[in-house]
Specification:
single chain; 265 residues; Alpha-Beta Plaits; 10 helices; 47% helix; globular
Amino acid sequence: MSYVRRSVVVAADILETSKLGKPLRQQVLQLILQHLRADPTFSGSYESNVYWLGNSLAFAQPIDIEVNRIQPVGLPFYALVQLVRLQANLSLLGTWLSGVVTIGSVYSESGILFGSGFDRAQQLKNQLTHSPRLVIDSVLLHAIENDHLLRNANHSAQTELSYIQQLLHRGSDALWFIDYLQAMERQLPSTIEYLSFLQSHAQCIMGLREHIEELDREAMLLNWLTTYHNELVHTLWEDEKLSDIQRDSLQITGLTAAEYDFAVF
């Protein structure tokens, strides 16, 4: 049966590092399916769809469905939470998603996905994403502000957007993207586990940086991640959530063979 539905749509490329072997690649695919389908919000009546094409994926979460019209739960917020968890867990395997989250009409049948929402997601992905991040289309944020079906039934637009903003960071290019490093502080049950996650994140990136020998796509990816990680650590230290010793232990240091630092003479 074919149908056209307004949906939250994700179009993303899977950015793999050269050290990702076949066993890890299978683990990556399992993680993606687990996070985009395992949450109770996205099972049963709240159907969702994941589509694959090589190293790219598309995800569609229908909004205009009967159960959500009766009792809206804030499906865009839950979709973003799942993407936070997914991006965080993928990062520890040396893999990241680079893409766009938007809203629009999609047609779905027998593993086929297309429509204006999917077209917009693909177009924005190709135009805007050159780093390992998931950019949030402003069209989605405006829709949440103006449409009660995109918000929890008990939330005003301001309340819903305040929760969503906690998951996002505004980049130097003024684009909002999923801030998985910061958002994981609220997703993990304790400060100790959060600091352990940040330590693992730093170790993963430092391990990958050791293999960089020239300036290429992978070097640029890891440079962006290094800056992103270190800025988050610095912010936590400024907010007095980290001691000087913790800050120093969590920072990513050193230069790759593709970097240069002018010495002070």
